[in-house]
Write a structure and sequence with these properties.
alpha/beta, 9-stranded mixed sheet, 13 helices, 38% helix
């Protein structure tokens, strides 16, 4: 019996996330979950390519020749870091407003299901992602030119300045995710800082501002540094949290020149040293890093780490990081400790990858209880 998880399940059962108000933005994708075929057995049955490394070997063998790789769409679903994180939160029934690229002039049918539990504002057409899933990871092949329309000007056109001030002024959480795929996100942050936040009513308790860069490798180093250096400007108005997966954390540390490049390339820097260095450099309230098997955070200058409920054969991995982010921030919103927030994040993602959907609050409490008994 794990006493921390047991006490956390009991503590969660007495919480009420439905009282929270949340604003999330600004991306939007239609995701097609795809399996790559290894052997075709008949018209309906096939054996899939299980790992990215196996696919890479097959592609390498085709160099100088050609090859055909059959892709089988398994599911068409809501995609994008923002909508997936939004749906994870929506399972707990808070009041949510989602602003993003959901289709114009009308919202695309795939996003219509969100309207049952979320207030939607669409400011651009969505991107499209072919998500090739494997046992050891996923390849996200994106088509995203429409996201060039996700700008501050479109935000004001479709939402309105007064309404945006009201939404952010009432919010307990403002999350802006998928920075890497939104070319004008940094400009949006700058203009929100200049035009919106100074006229927001002051709150006794700072709301949370959560940011997820979402694999910034393809962006220029100068752009990454500009965005990261802007985050601390939100501190007078928000409790600022930056979420990173393991790869992103090492990449960002390299861009910021926090350790020598070779050590970072081979991940020879410990997660604790990495997390603490990022926290010291960025001067924000929290950095949270979530590898596959654990997660860690620095809050108030202290490092915390917890192991996760690893599963060898997940049903769905696309969106696991967004579910972790939703669970971790939910923990902060519910005034849980850093360790408890990490566990809540990993329980949310752990449930999601096992069941291919996000847990509602009672399911989250039950999963935590089962986890405490080594039943997951």
């Amino acid at each position: 019996m794990d006493n921390l998880k047991k006490s956390l399940s009991e503590k969660l059962s007495k919480k009420d996330p439905s009282t929270k108000k949340i604003v999330i933005g600004f991306d939007g994708f239609i995701d097609e979950i795809i399996h790559a075929v290894d052997k075709r057995l008949d018209a309906l049955e096939f054996v899939r390519i299980d790992t990215i490394s196996d696919l890479a070997k097959r592609i390498e063998r085709a160099s100088g020749l050609s090859t055909n790789i059959e892709l089988v769409p398994m599911q068409r679903k809501i995609g994008g870091n923002g909508p997936i994180m939004c749906n994870a939160f929506a399972r707990h029934n808070p009041k949510i407003t989602y602003i993003g690229a959901l289709g114009v002039p009308t919202i695309d049918e795939v996003f219509k299901v969100m309207e049952k539990s979320v207030t939607l504002y669409s400011i651009a057409n969505s991107g499209h992602t072919d998500a090739l899933e494997f046992d050891d990871g996923k390849l996200m092949l994106g088509k995203m030119v429409s996201l060039n329309d996700v700008t501050y000007e479109k935000l004001i056109d479709h939402v309105g300045k007064e309404q945006l001030v009201q939404l952010l002024g009432e919010a307990d959480l403002f999350a802006t995710v998928n920075w890497s795929m939104l070319p004008f996100m940094t400009d949006m942050w700058s203009k929100i800082l200049k035009e919106i936040l100074p006229i927001m009513p002051k709150k006794h308790k700072k709301p949370i501002f959560f940011v997820d860069l979402a694999d910034p490798e393809k962006r220029e180093d100068e752009e990454i540094m500009e965005a990261l250096n802007l985050l601390k400007a939100f501190s007078p108005y928000f409790y600022v949290v930056l979420g990173l997966n393991k790869k992103e954390a090492y990449d960002v540390a390299d861009v910021l020149d926090l350790f020598d490049s070779e050590s970072l390339k081979h991940m020879q820097v410990s997660l604790q040293d990495l997390n603490e260095a990022l926290y010291t450099y960025l001067q924000i309230d929290s950095i949270v890093i979530h590898p596959v098997d654990r997660s860690c955070t620095v809050i108030d200058g202290k490092f915390f780490e917890e192991l996760g409920p690893y599963v060898k054969k997940p049903k769905l991995t696309t969106g696991a990081g967004d579910n972790f982010n939703a669970g971790f921030v939910l923990g902060l919103l519910l005034d849980l400790s850093p360790e408890e927030s990490l566990l809540t994040g990993m329980a949310t993602s752990g449930f999601y990858v096992r069941n291919a959907y996000s847990p509602n609050f009672s399911e989250l409490v039950s999963f935590m209880s089962d986890w405490s008994k080594d039943l997951v």
